Amino acid sequence: MSQLVAVFHDESRLLAAVRGAREQRVPILDVYTPYAIHGLDEALGLRGTRLPWVTLAGGFCGMAGAIALQVWCAVVDWPLDVGGKPAQSALAFLPITFEATILLGGLATAAAFFWRSALSPLAEPRPVAAGVTDDAMALVLKLDGTGPDERAALHELLRAAGAGEVREEDR
Amino acid sequence: MSDRNQRIVALVLLAAGAAAALFELWADPVRGWADLLVCAFLFLSLALAGQVFLAIHYASSAGWWTAFRRVPEALMSLVPLAALPMLAVWLGRHSLYSWMRPGALESDPVLKVKSAYLNEPLFLFRMIAFLALWSLFSLLLRRASLAQDQEPGLVQHRRMVRLSAVFLVLFAITFSLASFDWLMSLQPRWTSTMFAIYMFAGLFQAGIAAIALAVARLSRRDLAGSITPGHLHDLGKLLFAFSIFWAYIWVCQYLLIWYGNLTEEIPYFAVRTRGAWLPLFALAPVLRWLVPFVVLLPRWTKRDPRSLAGIAGVVLAGSWLDLYMNVAPAVLPGPRLGPPELLIAAGFAALLWLAATRALASAPLLPRNDPFLGESLRHGA
Hints:
heterodimer; A: alpha+beta; Alpha-Beta Plaits; 2 domains; four-stranded antiparallel β-sheet; 4 strands; 48% helix; B: mainly alpha; 17 helices; 0% strand; globular
């Protein structure tokens, strides 16, 4: 797959290039930035994240698991008399249920994020351009199916938007 | 409704509230003083919350909030005014505080030990000292802020940062002691180590609700164009977060006292969860946590001025009920909710509205020469 990488050192120029590419209906593969840039999601026209659904599912599993474990231990399998309270004192189960809900919700969110972003400690880093984890921002456009004239026009567009470096590459 | 008509309605409500308070103090002093203590404490809490909100943002060099800085500042400037109804509660001390009745401290061995701290002269001394201290910082901060409008430069800004940092430390100590004196000592044998933070959580959540309500309203009127959906979104997030914080503290206090089931701790909840008190006791967490939590969960409800203002109103009603449930069950045999409670609360709300709009009108709505103003106007745009 051939792609066009344009490197920027300024947020506003990057945003202008993203808007320009979208106006000309050039498919944008991705944008790499070292930090979150306000307005970039809107400029890229990204749909809302679906990550909260993973959080909800993970949190629900944590809640159900914690309640099941505590009820089984303290009510079904081995009832204990604690301060004369009934074995099934739901309020006493609250702290552990609360913590387990947050723990599993958080772990599920992090795991889903790493999986979808193809991040892992074992993955070999393949930065799209030098400096995208430091002070540079890279816009990556899809080139498949574009003719030489269109490519030249794209180079012109990106240069005009203020890209410091524009190059084509095959991955 | 025009501004003039709003003022007339507020003045009528204020007069009706004052008349209801005077009538109730004559007809049933305990009920009247309980209502006044609830409203005076809530009024003072809202004013102080403006001061704490401002101080936290100065101490942490926050830049997002400057476009609506005058709103918490207007609340803050009401602290000296809000001190007066609180001082008036001193006149009703014998109706409210059982430990102040003659012989109460001597006849009870537990209270006898506490009397080194819990006695009438020291109670009055602390009340005057705390109210004077908070009023002093309110005046100093307001003066520096108005001076900044006249002179470019960072001199007044740095003064605000220093005053804010000192105020926050002093406030943490003095407000804790004030909550012990004015509310916890209503049941003098009872203690809770969660009580001060419980009252602070209530103060800050109610204050954020009041600020969000005012900013949402101003965003469609005088501050249109300066307040972005980003400001409302962040105020909504703060209200959401501190609704959860309040619920967390509430549960911590309830859970530990319920679990321990100790003779000196349990009466507080035993009284409040019996008979006609129980529905009101259960309603407070619904208004202060469940409703704001569910409604403020989606993104758009935090960014829409109408829904944010609506939920802020629910939280403020819940704040009143929460304080009522701290005061009334300690002094009344059963809940007595009727026109007096409604009128007195409406009177205080009208007084707050009149004084706050006056404070807002007395200075430019957008602060001049603030180093963070540019950053704030671009916030979320």
